[in-house]
Amino acid sequence: MQNKTIGIRHEDKYEMERRTPITPRHAEKLIRDEGLEVVAQSSPKRVFTDQEYQEAGARVDQNLKNCPVIFGVKEIPEAQFEADKTYVFFSHVIKGQEYNMPMLKKMMDLRCNLIDYECIVDDQRKRLIFFGKYAGLAGMINSLWSLGQRMKAYGYKENAFLGIKQAQHYNSLQEAKAAVSQVGRQIAEKGIPEEWQPLTIGFTGYGNVSVGAQEIANLLPSKEITPKQLLSLRDRDHIPGNIIYKVIFKEEDLSKHKEGKAFDLPHYYAHPEQYENDFAQYIPHLTVLMNCMYWDSRYPRIVTKSYLKKLFAEGRPKLTVIGDVTCDPDGSIECTHKGTAIEDPVFVYDPETDKPRMGFEGHGILVMAVDILPSELPRDSSITFADALYPFVKPIAIADYSKDFADLELPPAIRKALILHRGELTPDYKYIAEYL
């Protein structure tokens, strides 16, 4: 007998996590058009209220005991898993993340099925369901807000960026964009303090996260230049004081072959250990660095602690804010020691003492590293995410997971994203066993 019931989890990993993978509007369509029963776990903080789900025809309950298939956003506490159920969420296990191996082991012990949104891709390995653009949008808003607060800490108490708030304080993306646009008009009319010219923003990567961050930056009076042009952007006499310069860095700008060979992208992805950091030459010319790229430990870091120590030894550098949207602790931005919370989003890292200090004050580089950035724009990001997820919900719900993996009737993109099947790692994910 086909399953027709799905559950929507209340998010409990973070206090400020307010997103949902399925909104009331999407729940109503699933009930009306697809014949599913939808149960929303009661939540006092979800951006869509219990009443909105009830009005959409969903049942609201304190638990999801009667739901064989459960959709969430972030990781689920080990004690919450139930035997033989199917779970769909961002599991953060595919890099062998140590902190989530106990969770994965528990799911294996309970013979659970695990589908990970991050692994739902098309034939070109392009992700189909993601919050990434909203991480970029919120990350850029927060980084501009951080720049204003850091400039204020340096004595610039009237700077234009003080007109921008942290993303969570806007009711919608539209409202946030209007505020940034207003700041853009102010910069166009009055310019930037001479000491901060030319004001430059660098973006690592060119995927969904970077696209979102650039969308916000484009609301300011801006001009895109190449990394090479950035290096010669020194002569203030010939640079307008009311323009912000944007630079997009690709793989070949970040790394170089250790033996001086020409950069080759396929070779770089296949043999990252043969490459080293080449980004250091650009850092002194950036005011804000938006780190928006994928990274894992096989690749060179782009900003190391030792480099920052050397940079600050020469006096206060131009680089003022790092918006680490990638947010890998001790990762591509080595001084990001942890992801920060929405309610305490920034710290200043002191390269001399190798210590972070929460807030905007202190000696060093300011880092904004909120690791659930899309939740600062919870309504907009949930709607966009649910739009992308919707076509896959019914196939995931009605699949007979008692069948062998080879016989599962799932869309190809979902089959690729099935990490666990009846508690066993599926063929593409057998490698995770070495991390357990």
The CATH architecture assignment of the largest domain turns out to be 3-Layer(aba) Sandwich
Helical run tally: 12
Strand order of the largest sheet: 3-2-1-4-5-6-17-18
Instruction: Tell me about the largest β-sheet.
Output: 8 strands, mixed
Poorly predicted ranges: none
CATH superfamily of the largest domain: NAD(P)-binding Rossmann-like Domain
CATH topology name of the largest domain, in short, is: Rossmann fold
Describe the model.
By secondary structure, this protein is of the alpha/beta class. It folds into 2 domains: 5-130 and 379-435, Rossmann fold (3-Layer(aba) Sandwich); 132-376, NAD(P)-binding Rossmann-like Domain (Rossmann fold), CATH 3.40.50.720. It has 12 helices and 18 strands. The chain has an 8-stranded mixed beta sheet with strand order 3-2-1-4-5-6-17-18. An 8-stranded mixed beta sheet has the order 8-9-7-12-13-16-14-15. Helix 1 links the parallel strand 1 and strand 2. Helix 4 crosses helix 6 (208-217). It starts with a strand and ends in an 11-residue tail after the last strand.
